[in-house]
Amino acid sequence: MKLRVALTTTDLSSLEHKQTLISSPSGMEIQIENEQRVKTIALLPGQSVRISPDGESMSVFITGHGRFKAARLVAGPRKASDSFFIDSVKRARANGQQRAEYRGHELDVNAAGGKLRLILVLDLEHYLTGVLESEVPASYHIEALKAQAVAARTYALNPRISHEKDNADVCDSYLCCQYFAGHKSVTSARHQQAIEATSGEILKYGTRAILALFSSNAGGYTSNYEDCFSDPKTNIFPPASIPYLKAVPEKLSPAEKNSAGETEARLKEVWHSNNHATFDSWSPHFKWSVHIPAHSLEAHMHHELSLLLKDQETAPFVIPAESGKFGHINKFSVTKRGVSGVAIELTIHTSTGEWQIRKELVIRNAFKNSDIKLARLKSAKIFFEHQHDHLGLLSSLTVKGLGWGHGVGLQQTGAQGMALAGKHYRDILSHYFTNAQIYRIGS
Ligand SMILES: [Zn+2]
Questions:
Q1: Cα(443)–Cα(438) distance, integer angstroms
Q2: 114 C-alpha vs ligand 1 centroid, how far in Å?
Q3: Res 274: pLDDT
Q4: Does 256 score more than 60 pLDDT?
Q5: Alpha carbon of 141 to ligand 1 centroid (Å)
Q6: Residue 253: predicted pLDDT
Q7: Fewer CB near the last or first residue (10 Å), C or N of the chain?
Q8: Domain-located, residue 145
């Protein structure tokens, strides 16, 4: 089964590329399509292809061959083991940002509106190797890797946001779909083993592939889908609930009773406890804190909220004070939480009235602050400690939180904890995806 994977820019946020440069140490076959004619050029090792948009078509320059006009360009390897580089896209590797490397598949390039679109065409199982290499360490227990393989395969078939309009099935960014940073030059044997042992297996609820969301660490309690996401088609929040994406606690001992729900008091208790044992509490991302001086907090938050209000995706989730002004911050309070403790609504009490922010990712993004190099809070499972000066005014804020990511569905560190406790990948998947069943594709 072939999958079309749209490549994002280096910051993982856009599918529109200004230009691109492709090269391969082993050579490639390049097909240039223009007005129904196809020209095939063998690219030798050391030669490269530079592509720039030219209105609705492209200008292609190939070393040793010259310049061509193209409506579409398809670059393919000569052998399945050959890799190629896209020099214009950088991806994080162990030793820092490097040019993106892909192996054994085709690259389909076309232009629209003066921008390029880059789409990889590859086998689903081959794509999964890249996803697992990008998403989970090979040192993880094989049962945790197998659970991730089934979730990632299912996600590829049913992503949360449809990429039909982009002429693709998924994109390669974890900000939207699941992370696919290309292939390592040597495939990890354990990742490969996890994919082969679960070959073709996906999760279904009823007759349909499920929305197999996953994140890194859920801070002791996964979250309900409707507490974190808006409807992908209408942007309505909260959306209809999804029966298999239910909040589940992460207790190690099955004899221990589940708490009725983690309220703020419970979050604080978990954060401050040194012996709170859950499947995911071994992770360094289980708990964290951020300290922000009030002057920096006010300036950056005011700026971020104005940006969030300008973006039509996020604007409905930022409700300004009646005065419309963002005054001095007095305090923060979470005015609505999900059963897991995740903040659904945050109220900012300012000298000019109360501002409200709703929805997990919007709340996290509101705290973006370059002074402390913070892109967003690690999660929205948060509570606050306010520090005041001698006049009683806010002098700084400490945000304390549990987990990393949205915490809906499978969590990778929890899957690892369950696998180490002797759980099979099928047990792990049924823990995170309530009542979903494993099927083989096509059955
Ligand atoms: Zn996507």
A1: 10
A2: 21
A3: 83
A4: no
A5: 28
A6: 59
A7: C
A8: yes
Long-range contacts of 388-393 (CB under 8 A, 24+ apart): 393/294, 393/328
Number of domains comprising the chain: 2
Distance 152 CA to ligand 1 centre (A): 13
- C-alpha span between 318 and 330 (Å, rounded): 18
pLDDT at 260: 46
Q: Work out the pLDDT band at 132, boundaries 50, 70, 90.
A: very high
In 294-441 the beta strands, taken as DSSP E runs, fall at 318-319, 329-337, 343-350, 353-358, 382-388, 394-402, 410-411, 437-440
pTM over 0.70? The answer is yes
> Among 76-80, 138-142, 172-176, 199-203, which stretch is predicted with the lowest mean pLDDT?
76-80
Give rounded-to-5 percent helix, strand, coil for the chain: 20, 35, 40
pLDDT digits (tens, 9 = 90+) for 349-401: 999 999 999 999 999 999 999 999 999 999 999 999 999 999 999 999 999 99
Question: Do 77 and 223 lie in a common domain?
Answer: no
CA of 385 to the centre of ligand 1 (A): 36
Asked if residue 278 lies in contact with residue 403, where contact means CB atoms within 8 angstroms, the answer is no
Q: What's the gap in Å between 178 CA and the centre of ligand 1?
A: 7
Ligand 1 centroid distance, CA of 170 (Å):
5
Nearest to 346 by CA among 385, 336, 338: 336
What separation in angstroms does the CA of 263 have from each of 179, 266, 341? 32, 5, 6
Q: Tell me, yes or no, whether 135 and 229 share the same domain.
A: no
Residue 97's pLDDT is 82
Amino acid at 357: I
Length of the chain: 443
Range of the domain at 278: 214-408
Spacing, Cα 394 to ligand 1 middle (Å): 40
Q: Are residues 302 and 322 in the same domain?
A: yes
